Amino acid sequence: MKLNNHSINRVLIVGGTHGNELTGVYLVKLFQQHPELIHRATFESLTLLANPQAIKAGRRYIDKDLNRSFLEENLEDGTLVNYEDLLAKNINHIYGQNGKYPVDFIVDLHSTTSNMGVTVLLDDDQKFNLQLAAYLSSLHPEIKIYSSGSSGRGKHGLRSRAKFAIGIEVGAIPQGVVNADLFLKTQTIVYATLDYLELYNQNKLPTFSQSFTLYKYLEKIDYPRNEHGEITAMIHPHIQYKDYQALNPSDPMFLTFDGQTITYAGESPAYPIFLNEAAYYEQSTAMCLTQKHQMTI
Amino acid sequence: MKLNNHSINRVLIVGGTHGNELTGVYLVKLFQQHPELIHRATFESLTLLANPQAIKAGRRYIDKDLNRSFLEENLEDGTLVNYEDLLAKNINHIYGQNGKYPVDFIVDLHSTTSNMGVTVLLDDDQKFNLQLAAYLSSLHPEIKIYSSGSSGRGKHGLRSRAKFAIGIEVGAIPQGVVNADLFLKTQTIVYATLDYLELYNQNKLPTFSQSFTLYKYLEKIDYPRNEHGEITAMIHPHIQYKDYQALNPSDPMFLTFDGQTITYAGESPAYPIFLNEAAYYEQSTAMCLTQKHQMTI
Fold first, then answer.
1. What percent of chain A has pLDDT over 70?
2. Is B21 annotated to bind ligand?
3. Does B241 reach chain A within 8 Å, measured CB to CB?
4. Mean pLDDT of B35-51
5. SS3 assignment, position A88
6. Is the pLDDT of residue B77 over 90?
7. Which of helix, strand or coil describes residue A23?
8. Which of A294, A242, A236 is nearest to A260 (CA)?
9. Chain A residues touching B179 at Cβ < 8 A
10. Cα distance from A277 to chain B (closest Cα, Å)?
11. Closest Cα of chain B to A224: distance in Å?
């Protein structure tokens, strides 16, 4: 079951793309201390703590979101000199396709304050990434697969620098906190991914189900806000922590600070994720709505 | 049942002592828009968003923790000119006992990433505060009462500026997030506190149980760290989210990043709280151990 003629020669495992998402930071530090954990025979495994200043400061970013800084035209714009703009250019010069050590695959480690369990993030519908998602899903049926493809997000992200990539998004975890259970689960999925790439290179992939559930980005929903841009409502208690559960027409969605319920005005069920993600208050996003698809590759 | 001869004349409700603890921030904003909610006949209710710059930045503090900036000698030290040092002096000049509008009682609203439910924080063993705690506990048996008295923390805190005070600490909530359920529960305890002060002033306090469970500060426990001061372990999954539950000798306490379990070496049970509080990683605190006491006033 060889998927194409290209082997995976170099893999980059990234933590700290957001400096206050500590799961990836400490997992990458562990891999740096124990490189044998990520060593595989058929490819080179590299690690990167992507935003060192943000990690040190315990913040998502210093000047702007690093994971929104990789648009091709931004990387070529010499006038962009914010910390993260410079960092993105540097990462691209090292690991990008025209860089010093171009990488074939990136695993990018994130955490969220939303109750998204272990989610594999896909930025596009490349068959290679979908096949990997199917494999991970067959091994670990409890994980969720989310495609942000139609949001356009993929082009801005660090993962755009490799030929193929996945993100691993785990939660609910507060910013600035390591949760042992989700640390171990992330570690398991990283190893399963590396094993997959190894088997792929060796042309030894086992048979696995080509069918899985895919949550596709539909739209983002902002909080209700007043004329000063301040939020006037919270995620309704009825849906808090209920990422990936159906939100039906007329279901409670927000609760205003003075006690009024705002319901979902959509005409068909949607599946909200990133419900109450801390970093998205400033990005006009109370949740992302997705559609649930049964995929067969 | 008059406890002393002094009435409560002025009450200050404080949110945003830590700028990324949004429960208090949005509750105080609500009270500022709807002062009728906190109006009571026998005293004046004031509100304060304590650290405006930190709230704007979405961070705990700008230069230093405001809630560690109220030590008497610091307030008198003209050379201390960090943002929070100046803020503390300003708050003291307005609301302190020699200030423009001295307050008799402070309710200080906090949130934590630890699973502490609704906790009433006491900084000392003044009978007035203990009586209030007993009242709140009799009305809402699910809340926890914690005394930080023996830690010395009270002297540094904003609440030290009033004659009497409580903190309300709710969790688990990530920094930078409002959780509707805990917002509503905090609101309920604020109203119950104001009602108590009103009944006290009117000498109309009902009979209530003078007995409650008090968790008293014992010691803080740091994370295991390497020679560079970096943490080498996480809160063990066995005790994560188990604030206020007995930690017995030899119980798992930490899990190192490379998979080793570290057990509790104490000789008698303790009750950990502030388990995995994000803000305490930099304060050398993985948890605070408490002792559980049955109090009868």
1. 98
2. yes
3. no
4. 98
5. helix
6. yes
7. helix
8. A236
9. 234, 240, 276
10. 7
11. 14
CB-based contacts of B138, cutoff 8 Å, min separation 6: B208, B209, B212
Residue A290: CB atoms within 10 A of its CB come to 23
Q: Is B124 exposed, middle or buried (0-12, 13-18, 19+ CB in 10 A)?
A: middle
Pairing of strands B144-147, B117-122: parallel
Whether A1 shows a pLDDT value over 90: the answer reads no
Label residue B6 by pLDDT band (50, 70, 90): low
Q: At what angle are helices A180-201 and A22-33 packed, to 10 degrees?
A: 60
Average pLDDT over residues A104-133: 97
At residue B212, φ and ψ (nearest 5 deg) are -160, 165
B241: left (phi over 0), alpha (psi -120 to 50) or beta: left
Q: Which residues of B touch A282 (CB under 8 A)?
A: 58
| ipTM (interface predicted TM) | 0.94
How far apart are the CA of B119 and the nearest CA of chain A, in angstroms? 19
pLDDT tier for residue A155 given thresholds of 50, 70 and 90: confident
Q: Are residues B276 and A58, on separate chains, in Cβ contact within 8 Å?
A: no
How many A/B residue pairs have CB atoms within 8 Å? 96
Mean pLDDT, chain B, whole residue set? 96
Q: So what's the pLDDT on residue A5?
A: 57
Listing DSSP states for B45-72 in one string gives: EEEEE--HHHHHHTSS-SSS-GGG---H
For residue B29, which of B47, B17, B51, B12 has the smallest C-alpha distance?
B47
Per cent of chain A over pLDDT 90 is: 95
A262 touches B at CB < 8 Å: no
Give the A window 17-56 contacts with B, CB below 8 Å.
26-27, 29-30, 33-34
| B26 → closest Cβ in A172, A180, A257 | A257
Chain A residues touching B281 at Cβ < 8 A: 58, 176-177
Backbone angles phi, psi at A145, to 5 degrees: -115, 125
Contact A60, A51 (CB under 8 A): no
CB A42 within 8 A of CB A201: yes
Output the pLDDT for position B242. Answer: 98
Segment B185-208, tens digit of pLDDT: 999 999 999 999 999 999 999 999
Encode burial over A33-60: b for 16+ CB neighbours within 10 A, e otherwise: eeeebbebeebebbbbbbbeebbeebbb
Amino acid of residue B220? K
